[in-house]
Amino acid sequence: MTIRESILNKFKYKKKGAILLLDPEKYIDTTGFNNIISKAVHHGVDFFFVGGSLLLQKNMDEIILHIKAINPQIPVILFPGNVIQISDKADGILFISLISGRNPEFLIGQHVVAAPLIAQTPLEVLPTGYILVNSGKATSVNYMSQTLPIPNDKPALAVATGMAGRYLGLQYLYLDAGSGADSPINPDIIYHVKERVGLPLIVGGGIDSLDLAKTAWDKGADYVVLGNGVEKNPSLLTEVLDYAKTYNLSLDVDQ
Ligand code: 1GP
């Protein structure tokens, strides 16, 4: 099954998905790193995202090969902060346009440089509208992209941005409050974007409890992304994955 097929399957049947974001710079201890990957695999994580604001390709290759050695099946998807974060060791790449911003480099510039490089790889390309929402503090993405996020109390702006992304042909939306956000995405934004735009929806940034993951799912997220929350509290990963698994199984029984 392609990555697109599994995303559409989750979207169609309103199942709950979870993605583990791994930023290699944050995992210095290999044993801890192996444990987290093994747990994620064992408890049914949907995808691994690999990326970071300052990461180099060499680090990307290393971490992906490491994940693949533990688990060859679950797709590893690049979540690149810039064009040097392309690795043919992964399975797919979020081809992200930062549509909440007005920096041409992150709307189309880096993409023009990246496209011929990606064409030489077997990576599955996932055209994704990336919408950054204000999380109460400046995040690395704000700084690195030099863009303003959408205010967290303005669902209409997020909806209009998502619609524009859809009309431009983007196939997925990623609503992100940024890594380590103080406050996650406003549930109203998730709800209205899902209802009005109707694309498969990934939500992340500051999700550090099962309750926050459930809220994002209930409001319309197809996938939640876990990053910092797992680094601080590894049991979050199993709580979220176990909840999703039980919920998804209950849907299968009903059908
Ligand atoms: C950041 O959505 C991801 O781009 C994950 O954020 O690290 O806050 O979980 P956290």
UniProtKB/TrEMBL annotation:
Annotated positions binding sn-glycerol 1-phosphate: Y174, L175, D176, A177, G178, S179, G180, G205, G206, G227, N228
GO molecular function annotations of the record: magnesium ion binding; phosphoglycerol geranylgeranyltransferase activity
Keyword Lipid metabolism: yes
Annotated binding of Mg(2+), by residue: D23, S53
Cofactor(s) recorded in Swiss-Prot or TrEMBL: Mg(2+)
GO CC field: cytoplasm
Alphabetic keyword roster: Lipid biosynthesis, Lipid metabolism, Magnesium, Metal-binding, Phospholipid biosynthesis, Phospholipid metabolism, Transferase
Reactions listed under catalytic activity: sn-glycerol 1-phosphate + (2E,6E,10E)-geranylgeranyl diphosphate = sn-3-O-(geranylgeranyl)glycerol 1-phosphate + diphosphate
Keyword Signal listed: no
Annotated InterPro entries: GGGP/HepGP_synthase_sf (IPR038597), GGGP_HepGP_synthase (IPR008205), GGGP_synth (IPR010946)
EC number: 2.5.1.41
Any one Gene Ontology BP term: glycerophospholipid biosynthetic process
Function text: Prenyltransferase that catalyzes the transfer of the geranylgeranyl moiety of geranylgeranyl diphosphate (GGPP) to the C3 hydroxyl of sn-glycerol-1-phosphate (G1P).
HAMAP family assigned: GGGP_HepGP_synthase
Name recorded for this polypeptide: Geranylgeranylglyceryl phosphate synthase
The organism of origin for this protein: Anditalea andensis
